[in-house]
Amino acid sequence: MQYIVSVDIGTTTIRACLYGKSCNKLKVAEEKVDIEISGQDEWELRVEIAPEKLLEQFIRVVQSVLKDVSAEDSVAMALCCQRNSFVFWKKSTGKPLHKIVCWNDARARKSCEDWNGSVFIKMLNAGGSFLHFFTRMPRFMAAKNLKFLSAMVTHRALVTLETIPGHKALINDNDLGFGCLETWLINRISVSDNYLADASNISSTGLYDPYINGYNNVIIKILGFPTSILAPICDSISSKELCFIKESFFGRKIPISAILADQQSALYGSGGWDLHDVKISLGTGTFVDMNTGNKPHASMNGLYPLVGWRMNNTPVYIAEGNDHDTAVLLKWAGEIGLFENVQDTSDMAFAVKSTNGLLFVPAFGGLQTPINDGLACCSFMGLRPDTKKVHMVRAILESIVYRVYQIYQTMMDEVKPTKTSKIRICGGVAHNDFVCQSISDMLNCEIERVTDGGLVACRGVALLAGVQLGLWKEADLPNMISIESVFKPNADSRRVLVKTFPLWLQAVKRSTKFY
After folding, report:
1. Residue 297 — φ and ψ, nearest 5°?
2. pTM over 0.70
3. For labeling, which of 14, 72, 196, 201 is most exposed (least CB within 10 Å)?
């Protein structure tokens, strides 16, 4: 029998799912990722993971789901990872040279601010504007709006590289490995020490140019990034296995058949294969992704043109908007005593007709698309003597809804889809009925919640691996997606949300440029 073990290395959880021949879920194992946070202020925030510990967790969760699989059965692996978390290592020993630097680490925030205020960026923006005016080419629009972000890999990697003793000698000796999680992990566990970077993962790093389907050598050279350490970009799946895992890890030589970044995998696992399909993920952060087909979208307001997946060197592109703070808001709210069980928050929000004038700005990590202000602060506004915990909980949940609405509306305004697309929602916070219903109300669209939404990224890359293995065809995929619930707009609750939205925008304005 053929099995697929799908591993999702997320920001807060690492999990392995075992799937059967029809992509039926057989077993799940997961562990919490140990995130190390340090730093004295917003400009020096360090968010890191111990790489050897993460590798041990990877081995344990895979071993757990495989322990009852017969040696005679075939097993392939599908891998999806959190994006933009990276590490440098010594190739000759495989030893990491520092802790994994996570995507929300802020060590390069000042470097990004300095570059964005530099004469060079202003000239690049002006040149892009000039060329776009005459050519109307999307690539020049991207140059017109280029800004470096701390969430990108480029500046965090350069800042980290300077702290590694002897890094120049390692580069000269071709002994310095560098990559995001899929590159590091595959180099560490594969039979041939494969050195590769998946297209969907590399596309969000700031090192990739979607308009040429390859590394952005212009930006790389301007920044002084060492090109010799960059891994070759590979397809998400190919006609044969991408690599094999050493037998010493799991007692068998397992092929890796598919690799995707986590949000792209969630889009695939939600059934977002058609042009202008939309997936909303509500997990650690909020991610809204739209399938844009064979064309990368150039945005004026912070949408990112990324590779969804790539086959035969041909990408399917997506436009993505995001917000860093979603599940973390509820974790914090629980820790300060606003509720005892996060599962109660939906009923708490439904129990009151409004927030009683209270507004919440969800900006622990700044505000992303389309506001794009890394210096915004989190805030409650409109507190009154009669404000209750239920009002505070509802205000927090409404802020998640409003951020989704802002991102979605930006997509509608910029991409201008020509047909009504399916909109599907997944992720841990998507279990909250109030949030899902309110998103449906604000978007004034039907929202479909995917079954097992917390596992949709695991399932997405497993579905892709099954295509590579010949277990099913792409034409079979629509019948393999299950919808748990459908939320339809409610006119009465929509009126309340729409009425509050302009006031919330005022609160956002007062919270921007705070630090």
Report:
1. -95, 130
2. yes
3. 72
Cis peptide bond prior to 370, omega within 30° of 0: yes
> Both tokens of residue 141?
């629009």
Q: Do the Cβ atoms of 185 and 55 come closer than 8 Å?
A: yes
- Tell me the pLDDT band of 52, cut-offs 50, 70 and 90: very high
Res 133 pLDDT > 60:
no
| Domain ranges within the chain, ordered by starting residue | 2-262, 324-452+482-511
Q: Taking the CA of residue 385 as centre, how many other CA atoms within 13 Å lie in the half-sphere pointing to its CB?
A: 0
Cβ atoms of 45 and 37 within 8 Å: the answer is yes
pLDDT value of position 126: 65
What pLDDT score does 39 carry? 80
In this structure, how many other beta carbons lie within 10 angstroms of the beta carbon of residue 175? 15
pLDDT greater than 90 at residue 263: yes
Region 324-452+482-511: CATH code: 3.30.420.40
Which CATH class name applies to 2-262?
Answer: alpha beta
Within this chain, domains 2-262 and 324-452+482-511 share the same CATH topology? yes
Q: Give the SS3 label for residue 394.
A: helix
Residue 262 φ then ψ, to 5°: -60, -45
- The CB-based long-range contact list for 337-344 (8 Å cut-off, 24+ gap) reads 337/389, 338/389, 338/392, 338/393, 338/396, 339/389, 339/393, 343/431
